[in-house]
Structures are given as C-alpha cells and as structure tokens.
C-alpha cells in the first residue's frame, strides 16, 4: 500500500467512454437556445466546450451565454436531457478495465468516489445504464459539493462524506487538465491523468499530473504499489 485511503475518479473519458456524446449533447442544447450549427458563433462555442471538458456544464453555459442565467439554465437542462437520451439509446460504455480497476481498489480497502461535471440525474442515468450504482462508495456532483472542476470542492466533499481526514491520502484520476488541477488544489498526493478522453500526454503533464497513464486500468498499480 502507498497510504492512499480514497480514489476520486472522473466519469466521462476516464471510467466511461465518451465517444463524442458531450459534443452531440452540446450541439442539441445550444441549438435549443437559438445557436444552430451554421451560426457563426457555433464553432467558437464548440471550441470552448472542448477546452473546458471536465468542468461543470452549467458554468460552461454561463460563460458561453454571457452570464444570461435564464438562458444558461435552459441550455444546461437541454444538455442533460440530450445526454440522458443518448445514454438511454445505448450510447454508453465503460472504459475497458475500469470496473476491474475499481473492484481491485475496493478489494484492497481503498474507498472509491465518482465525480463528474454532469448534474445528478445524468450521473445516475450513466451509473444505472452500466450497472454501476453500487460499484463505488460515493458518487458526487458539482451541485452537491459547491463548485465543479477545476475547484477542489468535489474531492474535499468526498473526503468529508466518507469520514476521512487527510487529503494527502487521496488519489485523483481524470482525463482533462481540469481534473488534474482539481486534484492538485485539493492536496491529493496522487493526481493521475489518463489518455482515454479529452486530454493528451503533454497537456496533462503541463497541468501538473504526478502520473500520466494510458488508462485507468493502470491506476491500481500506482495506488496499491
């Protein structure tokens, strides 16, 4: 053991395959508030979505829509609906080896928490579709923690809710620079970037990842030694 009591895992791109679902749901959502694909604003908005992968979706929509709270909330609701529909249609699959990695960690006595930039209903829809409702010890969202990535709130909230005391005994894993920054700001001693999602080796390393892994399936060897 390396002294890790808790592993906080991102979902889309880290433990759950994204396969473009976020971009498809975004296109539907932004269209619902009047920005179509042919609109000159669309490509810049899509670029921002790509650059902020992993962050709270409502925060992203607030930025894109110039702080118009009502419109941002409408877009966010449309995003969550569109993503949930894609999940219900079967467009949801685990990253190969993710479930085995989580079971290995928990089998060794390490607690595991899922974190996400999605709202609670979407997170639960994904976990239900994969049969993962009981796979981890906790599933947490930005709304429950206070703020989403790149703030440390979800990691710290998971630590508190699971009754742990030392942030140095936490590992965080995710596929974006925002995931890495979240882990560093929370004080985790292991902050792993994975290459199965939006981030690449350079961007994850430059963000400060302590480890850059091909997949979350490699995480138990880091955490358990």
Automatic annotation (TrEMBL):
InterPro entries: HAD-like_hydrolase_sf, HAD-like_sf, HAD-SF_hydro_IA, HAD_sf, PhnX-like. One of its GO terms (molecular function) is phosphoglycolate phosphatase activity. GO terms for cellular component: cytosol. GO terms for biological process: DNA repair. Transmembrane segments: none annotated. The keyword Magnesium does not apply. Keywords: Hydrolase. PANTHER family: PHOSPHOGLYCOLATE PHOSPHATASE (PTHR43434), PHOSPHONOACETALDEHYDE HYDROLASE (PTHR43434:SF19). This is Phosphonatase-like hydrolase. It comes from Solihabitans fulvus.
């Amino acid at each position: 053991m390396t002294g890790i009591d808790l592993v906080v895992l991102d979902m889309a791109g880290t433990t759950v395959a994204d396969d473009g679902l976020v971009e498809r749901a975004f296109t539907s959502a932004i269209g619902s508030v009047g920005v179509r694909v042919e609109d000159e604003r669309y490509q810049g908005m899509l670029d921002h979505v790509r650059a902020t992968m992993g962050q709270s979706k409502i925060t992203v929509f607030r930025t894109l829509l110039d702080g118009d709270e009502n419109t941002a909330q409408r877009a966010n609701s449309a995003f969550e609906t569109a993503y949930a529909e894609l999940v219900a249609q079967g467009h949801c699959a685990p990253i190969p080896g993710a479930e085995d990695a989580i079971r290995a960690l928990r089998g060794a006595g390490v607690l595991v928490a899922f974190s996400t930039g999605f709202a609670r209903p979407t997170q639960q829809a994904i976990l239900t579709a994969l049969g993962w409702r009981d796979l981890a010890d906790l599933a947490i969202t930005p709304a429950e923690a206070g703020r989403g990535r790149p703030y440390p709130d979800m990691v710290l909230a998971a630590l508190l809710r699971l009754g742990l005391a030392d942030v140095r005994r936490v590992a965080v894993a995710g596929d974006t620079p925002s995931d890495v920054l979240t882990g560093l700001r929370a004080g985790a001693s292991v902050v792993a970037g994975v290459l199965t999602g939006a981030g690449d080796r350079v961007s994850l390393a430059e963000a400060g990842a302590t480890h850059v892994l091909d997949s979350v399936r490699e995480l138990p060897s880091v955490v358990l030694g």
